[in-house]
Structure formats: C-alpha cells, structure tokens
Amino acid sequence: QGQLVESGGGSVQAGGSLRLSCTGSAYRSDRCIGWFRQAPGKEREGVASIDGFEHTTYADSVKGRFALSRDNAKNALLLQMNSLKPEDSAMYYCAVNVRNTCPAPGWLAGYNVWGQGTQVTVSS
C-alpha cells in the first residue's frame, strides 16, 4: 500500500497562508486523494479532494480560500491555504482512495492509506 507523508503545517496568524504537501509511495495521480482535518473533540471532516480526472471539490468552509494543485516533479499534492481563520486550526491529513473517483465530500469510504498528519494552528 505504501505510505503518505504530509508537511507544511505550522503556526500563523489569522489572515496568513500555509501550503501543505502530500507525497509518498502511496501517492497516485490517477486516484482520488483527499485532504481532511480534525480538531480536538471534533470529527474528522473533508476539506478538499481531487480525483483521477483532475476534478476538485472543496468544503463550503474553505471555498475561495484553499486550492489544490499538483507538483508533478515531486509527485505531490499541494493544498494552498490562504486567508486562514482560527477555526481552520486542526491536524490535517491526506489520504488516497482505492478509486479514481472521490466519494461525496466528507465521506471516508475507500480511503485506504492515510498520512500521519501535519498540525495547523491559526491564532487570532
């Protein structure tokens, strides 16, 4: 199955930006890959996903602020996060799905390889 590794997290002030990266031996550009986040005491929620046909989906809470892109040279999926808010603070995970299409936003079905996460903290 391989593994995924997230990087790029950190601490920023509200309004700032971060760019997360997801790469690893499990990275597949022909599969659905999703970004998720989980804050303490809350359920894991879907943030954004890209399928094997380059179709992207974003959670309503991040639309217009977050953007997915691929770094093909590094076999990585990037999540550019702008205009960050304190409520964006969470552990962020990427995961690869067994299918080339993505499940409905927030659904976890089919994601079989997960990274260990990278922490994002946004202060007000």
* SSE arrangement, N to C: EEEEEEEEEEE
Largest sheet: 7 strands, mixed
| Alpha-carbon distance between the two ends | 39 Å
Task: Give the averaged pLDDT, no decimals.
Answer: 96
Give the helix tally: 0
How much helicity do the residues have?
under 10%
Whole-number radius of gyration? 13 Å
- Could you tell me the number of beta strands? 11
Describe the global form. Answer: globular
As residue ranges, the low-confidence spans are: none
What does this structure look like?
Strands 2, 4, 5, 6, 9, 10 and 11 form a 7-stranded mixed β-sheet that branches. The protein has a 4-stranded antiparallel β-sheet with strand order 1-3-8-7, with no helix packed on it. It is globular, with a radius of gyration of 13 Å. The protein has strands at 5-7, 10-13, 18-23, 33-38, 45-50, 56-58, 66-71, 76-81, 90-97, 111-114, 118-123. The termini are far apart. The model has no long low-confidence stretch (mean pLDDT 96). The protein has 124 residues and is an all-beta fold.
